[in-house]
Amino acid sequence: ESEAEPVPVLVPDGADTAQLRCRAQGVPGVQLHWEHQGHALRPEEARFQEHQWHEGPWTSSLLTVANVTLDRARLRHLYWDQSKKPPRHQYRNWDPERDPNWDQHQNWTLGAFVCVAQNPLGTVRRRLQLRLAGTGT
């Protein structure tokens, strides 16, 4: 299941926060945490707020991502610029994995967030793809 397609989460146009939800159960009990850009989210990152709670055998987590409006404005600007003029270095294959500016292009809101469920018996990852509705329009 860890290699399944990411679950899309659409942020409505105009919304300034996005919410990602994850839920898991297991015996023994499950702990949840989130990863983004391949790294665990740090508690001191004010942009990400996590709320975790238990209901019977279930552990639930709600991750709130702030400042989505900033990303939408930057992405609109980026797409607008790209549509007005052809990219420089057209002969190069653009590889997001090798492009040092990829973080700026995709910003910190977009991309895959991973909900990681762990207990002593193992780890399960579930990918959620955060997308901005109305980008580039």
UniProtKB/TrEMBL annotation:
InterPro entries: Ig-like_dom_sf, Ig-like_fold. It comes from the Eukaryota. This is NPHN protein. The lineage of its organism: Eukaryota, Metazoa, Chordata, Craniata, Vertebrata. The gene is Nphs1_1.
